[in-house]
Description:
single chain, about 325 residues, alpha/beta, Rossmann fold
Amino acid sequence: MPLENINNIVLxxxxxxxxxxxxxxxxxxxxxxLQGHSVGVLDIDLTGPSIPRFFGIExxxxxxxxxxWIPVPVHDxxxxxxxxxxxxxxxxxNGAEKEGGREIGPLSCMSLGFILANRKDAVIWRGPKKTxxxxxxxTDVLWPQLDYLLIDTPPGTSDEHISLLETLLKHTSPSPSxxxxxxAGAVVVTTPQAISVSDVKKELNFCKKTGVRVLxxxxxxxxxxxxNCSECTHVFSKGGGKAMAEEFGVPFLGSVPLDPLFxxxxxxxxxxxxxxxxxxxxxxxxEREEIVEEGSKEGILVxxxxxxxxxxxxxxxxxxxxxxxxxxxxxx
Length: 332
């Protein structure tokens, strides 16, 4: 089946809507690509497929081939010019830097949004049809060889989740040494406030009952980065995600603030430009050596994302995530 081309499958889960699962999935995928990995993103949020919008490929359509669907490419494997957006050395540690620039891995996506005749149409489906669609996504998408497949899920523990896990557990293995694809585990997303944490705890219990390993918790919307003065304000409180991770004995991957310039990047395709001296996660964002016109839309998404303040945070999150997957697998 098509999943045989995938080395590691990672679920992105949350027990609550509106916490930014698709945003986190998008940035995990972009960062994995920047670190040289080949990446696929499967969007099974059937009633709210937002992945096409995040990657700026809303107008694309999937192509059919003998045996299934060909996912929509976001970008191919290529070499980007050097960027000075982050000069703390985090990128070079991942081995993706080359003499002529930075080699990135290919990225492709699959979503119901590519199949709908009109993207404004509401998807009003009963459980059995949702279940059938999820299974078809898992069995009929002809993924290329992937290091990682990220699966963006809807909120809660509904029919889609049950169908997803039933199919994955049937066709994958918890051991990377098996010939079957490796179900590495789940990244659980929450926001800091107590009402969100209380709902997301149900997702952690869901993972425990179904035997899905929790790779870690990401606390999204943990503060607001002012685009003018670069100050970070904790408008939704802070620390709830970390406390929840400690309570359940799972890794805490990090806190991600709201960055308006990331929103502008996704919505308008505009390259982020920050005030001099902006500090994110204790690291200063360096100014680019080349002149970047404010409001520039030139370049592919992953290249422009390198200049986003959140890229520095996700570089650390993804590097730790990959190392944890590898270390746990070697010890399995």
